[in-house]
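Handover notes (outgoing to incoming on-call)

Open items:
1. RNA-binding S4 domain-containing protein: sequence verified, structure written out, both below. Nothing else pending on this one.
2. Nothing else urgent.
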Amino acid sequence: MSQSAPVSHDAAVATSSMRLDLWLWAARFYKTRSLARHAIETGKVEIGGQRPKASRAVRAGDLLSVSRAEETFEVTVVGLSDSRGSASVAQQLYVESEDSRLRREHERANRAAQRTGYCAPETRPDKRARRLIRALGDIDAL
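RNA-binding S4 domain-containing protein C-alpha cells:
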C-alpha cells in the first residue's frame, strides 16, 4: 500500500505543472507550439509581469498576459492539458478577467468605427473625376 501512494503522488506532481508553450498551444492561443515559443521569446507572453522562457512551468492559478495581433488577453490558468482539444475544451483551461474582456471589446469597437468612414467607389472614375484626381497631385494644375 505504501508503494501506491508515491506513484499517485508522482502522477499528481506531473500533472500539476506543464510547459508554457505546450499550455498556450493546448489553450488555442497559438496554432502551433513553435508559434507559441516564438511569441514567448519575443515578449508577447508574460507571467506575473515577467518575461518567461518557453520551458517555464505553468500551474493552476498563474496570471498570464498574452498579446496576439492587436488584442491582449489577461487570463488565469484554471486547468492543464497537454493535448489540444476543441475550442470549448480549450476555454475551460483559463478564465479571462472581466477588465481584459471589456477592454478588448472596446478596442475592437474602436477599430471597427475607424473603418466605417471609408466607402469604396462603386464604379471607375469618369473623365471629370480623373482630371480632379490628377489636379490633387499637382496643385498648380488648377
